[in-house]
Amino acid sequence: MYALYDRFTLTGQHHIRTWDRQGHSWAAFTNYRQPAAHGLYIPQPVLNLIIRGEKRIYDGLQVHHLRTGDVFLIPAGSVICSEILRPAEDFASINFFLPEMLQAAQHTGAGTGRQVAGTTLTISPSADWRQLTQALLQHFREDGAMPAYENMMDRLQHLLQKEPVAVRRAVAGKPSGGMQHMMARLHNGIHEVRLLEEVASLGNMSPATLKRRFRETYQCSPMQWIWGKRLQMSALLLRTSEQPIPEIAYSTGFEDLSHFYRQFRRCFGMTPARWRRAEI
């Protein structure tokens, strides 16, 4: 149901250019000329700079509507849906994978509060962020031009250190090793699991340990989290496909239509049919 996002290439992209270091991509400029939709598991933090166009990010109870100039942070351990909206000309963005060294630096500056994983955040697009975006665009437009990796990470670290504590905690936060192992196995089968014991077995832990670690990482129970991810996928499919509503409900893991309708309305404040038609 959700694909692993460990590289920048996704279906529907019209063009992509990446910057690579030691065989791994660390930044990319991408654009789309048609609408596109993706369900993604994000194992390491991603910083998203919106260059042109609009997109929606579905993150549990939140739907973020991003526009030109926005800066968006997706922490490690996030499971999201992304919808590129009807681009009049095209949609373009620059994305970074944030490395361990930068996460550790933000952890140092984030105080003693809990480091929250999986909580997406919109960062206010200050003049500093706009200057960075323009400089990066110039590099991407010039063949062969690539800033020094260490210099760019220093610049990102400097900008993030100036952000509120909540942003720095989100950069630093990540699931524990056991939770990461479980998520690597769970993300593409969220629609299939039925019992807490099934989820716990994916992480080789007891149900009690799983519940404790889920509460520490995502501030909710495992099954609450799973139902939320099923609902956000159904919300995406309602907007981006012509599938009948019952088919969407069953395909995302709901076995009882009345339960699906109740939960969807509780989550999004309207019926699935109205959500499909609404301009939000």
Per the CATH scheme, the topology name of the largest domain is Jelly Rolls
Number of strands: 11
Secondary-structure-based class equals alpha+beta
How many domains, as an integer? 2
Query: Architecture of the largest domain, according to CATH?
Result: Sandwich
Beta percentage is: 15-25%
Helix content: 40-55%
User: N-to-C terminal Cα separation, in Å?
Assistant: 24 Å
Which strand order do you get reading across the main beta sheet? Answer: 2-3-10-5-8-11
Radius of gyration: 19 Å
Number of helices: 11
Low-confidence runs of at least 5 consecutive residues: none
Q: Which sheet architecture does the biggest sheet show? A: 6 strands, antiparallel
Order of helices and strands: EEEEEEEEEEHEHHHHHHHHHH
Calculate the mean pLDDT score and round it: 90
What coarse outline follows from CA principal-axis ratios? globular
At the first level of CATH, the class of the largest domain is Mainly Beta
Organism: Chitinophaga qingshengii
Domain HTH araC/xylS-type: 180-278
Keywords: DNA-binding, Transcription, Transcription regulation
Pfam families: ExsA_N, HTH_18
Features:
11 strands; 280 residues; globular; Jelly Rolls; 11 helices
Describe this structure in words.
The structure is a single chain. The chain has 280 residues and is of the alpha+beta class. The protein has two domains: 3-172, Jelly Rolls, CATH 2.60.120.810; 177-277, Orthogonal Bundle (Arc Repressor Mutant, subunit A). Helices cover 42% and strands 23% of the residues. The protein has eleven helices and eleven strands. It has helices spanning 100-109, 127-141, 149-161, 165-172, 177-186, 196-202, 207-218, 222-240, 245-251, 257-268, 272-277; strands spanning 3-4, 15-21, 24-32, 36-42, 46-52, 54-59, 62-67, 71-74, 78-84, 91-97, 121-123. 40% of the residues are buried. The mean pLDDT is 90. It holds the Pfam family HTH_18. It comes from Chitinophaga qingshengii. Residues 180-278 form the HTH araC/xylS-type domain.
